[in-house]
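User: Sequence in, structure out. Go.
Assistant: Echoing your sequence, followed by the structure tokens.
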Amino acid sequence: MKKEDFKVGQTVYILQILNFRNDATIEERIREVKVLSVGRKYVTVDFWGQMKFDATKDFREATHYSPSYQLYLSKEQILQEFHRYSMQQTVMCAFDWSSGITRNMSQEDLQTVFDIVKKYRGDEQ
């Protein structure tokens, strides 16, 4: 995603990434907004007046504090990113040293997982 993908008047979406309820669903954290302006560095949207997003910092809210929102072109883009994050968390937790999941895997499944890990680690063991 780049700054040139945004146009004035376009409907875009922001995701609340900080300061949300623990039980908030991903859907509850998404807001539909309109682009007000596209500058050299910032994309400004109509949310709580005007909110700027920094195109040089992954389209996170431009603030002196920790950003609470991130800008996206589509709701689907947010949902895909959230699904990827959820899969990463599941995989990391599954292979925690205490989970014991590898003890229950067949030799073939363990070899498949091993090959995938080896591919992305870049080492030869």
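User: And one key feature?
Assistant: The chain has a mean pLDDT of 91.
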